[in-house]
Amino acid sequence: MSAPRTHTDVARAPKYRVYLLLAILALAACKVWAPSRRPLAEVAKAEQTVVLRLTHTSLAVMDVEAAQIVGDSIIGYAHKSSPRTRVAMALADVRSVHVQKVSAARTVGLVLALGVSAAIVGAALDEEPPPPPPQEPHVSCPLIYTWDGTNWRLDSGTFGGAIMRALQRTDLDNLDFAVAADRVLRLKVANELRETDHVDALNVLAVDHEAGLAVAPDASGGIHTLAALVRPVEASDFSGRDALARVTTSDGWNWESTPTGRDSAKVADIRDGIEVTFIRPADARHAHLVLDGNNTSWASYLLSEFIEARGSSTDAWYDSLNSGKLDAAAMGARLASEAFLTVWVETSKGWMRQGLIWEAGPEVVKRQVLHLDLAQVHGDSVRVRLESVPSFWLIDQVALDYSTDRPVTVTQLELVHARDRQGVDVRARIAAVDDDYYVLETGDEAELHYSVPDVPKGLARSYLLRSTGWYRVHTSLAGQPDTATLRTVSEEPLGISRVAVGRLN
User: Fold this and answer.
1) Residue 351, SS3?
2) Residue closest to 87 by CA, chosen among 241, 252, 238
């Protein structure tokens, strides 16, 4: 099975009147922490929309949003963390649970004491709207939803990192939730972010393979079969923290960098990652690294910050790179070498670079495969090193598969229906790679239907999406360029990492 998909909600900005009313209601609603006597699993399932206060057996307290039980732990997001930070606590270590609730008595008392609130609201609505509250800056790529037979499920983010036409790329990703009904597979492509998406092609591949196998793509568009994932026996990050429990299985409990205590002047502090050890079968000379992970919202935010640093020269910058693709490729390679996950294998001659795990976006956990050359690895273990900018990645699972690729049959499904919200037929624009783009502005979407042949007898089927295109992030085009930041990012060794850690601090 591929990694379970997860979705990071994207904040939308309603009208200012709604914000004002919500703010006053929030002020009027006095909240208290009420102890819960129900089983923790029941509380987490029923109370995902509120905040849970978990008390550890050590008496440490952790406030958790969107809590859920995964394996032997309760996981969620730290309350009011920005960017959102994953937290977890072993079920065996939970001493007590409190639920944040509204106290009716306190609320009534406060409303009576502030009886003029209604008049304030009425007056405020006639004034100029206040500035909108801060939103989580968020950019990524077009989002793909699949119909699972009952609901639409977020299943893929496409061609991540293709932030201009010169960097257009073709991406391949598992569709884990797609279910064909009446020989039809349904997808939606949507732009929910602050960007303009240019989709050249969206093709669905039906991959028929032996039962019991899974399939997953590499960054170059290759499809690999996975027979038996081997879990790591050791894992620790660059500071020595144990990470094994976080990266052993795809369960939503991720490894993430420690964001604090870093000095941007020290090379050791501006890079982070994990080193993972696996048992090696005798004479194994190759393996597939299988990684389930995605980027943090912080990484997405900084990407838009780096673009916005160009200020009034942004359009000229885009034009120069789109007309000079070699320069654009060099910029893209520099970004990839720092911000993507660099993979190394320890050999008798030291760490040997194997390649990159591609940018995945913050919305969906993606499974990616990378071929590892173990010819120069000696002994009965394999040590793998994953490295990137601190707090840029959430790593859910790292595994190896020593099996060789088995035969598969790949069929590109026929696109039979593609209409946007206005009913306009966009099928011709996304059926093939031809530079005839379906352009989506924020809020646009289209529903796609693909004709599905029968599964050959005795085989199993997986679906993958092959997407081609690029996107442009919406940033301010005003102000003077931030030349100091741009010089560091563009010219200095590890400049992206250095600026990122400085901003993180």
Assistant:
1) strand
2) 252
Q: Whole-model pTM above 0.85?
A: no
Distance between CA 216 and CA 170 in Å, rounded? 15
In the three-class reduction of DSSP (H, G, I as helix; E, B as strand; rest coil), residue 16 is classed as helix
Place of tokens 């859920």: 68
What pLDDT digit, counting tens, does each position of 30-57 carry?
A: 455 666 666 776 666 665 557 888 887 7
- Reading phi first (left if > 0) and then psi (alpha if -120 to 50, else beta), residue 150 is in alpha
ω before 129 within 30° of 0 (cis)? no
Q: For residue 390, give the amino acid letter.
A: P
Q: Coil, strand or helix: which one is 395?
A: strand
In whole angstroms, give the CA distance from residue 30 to residue 6.
Answer: 32
DSSP 425: B
Long-range own/partner contacts, residues 328-334 (CB < 8 A, 24 or more apart): 328/164, 328/166, 328/167, 329/166, 329/167, 331/490, 332/161, 332/167, 334/490, 334/496
Q: Which two tokens stand for residue 333?
A: 């390679």
Buried b or exposed e, range 7-17, using 16+ CB within 10 angstroms: ebebeeeeebe
Which residue, among 436, 482, 472, 489, has the nearest Cα to 199 in the 3D structure? Answer: 436
What whole-number distance in Å separates Cα of residue 42 and Cα of residue 27? Answer: 29
Report the sign of the C-alpha dihedral through residues 64, 69, 70, 73, in that order: positive
How far does CA 339 lie from the centroid of its chain?
Answer: 14
User: In whole angstroms, what is the distance from residue 354 CA to residue 370 CA?
Assistant: 8
What's the Cα-to-Cα distance from 100 to each of 36, 39, 419, 491, rounded to whole Å? Answer: 10, 16, 44, 49
Q: Could you read off the pLDDT of 98-150 as tens digits, one per residue?
A: 887 554 444 444 443 444 334 333 333 343 433 333 344 455 678 999 999 99
CA atoms of 48 and 482, how far apart (whole Å):
42
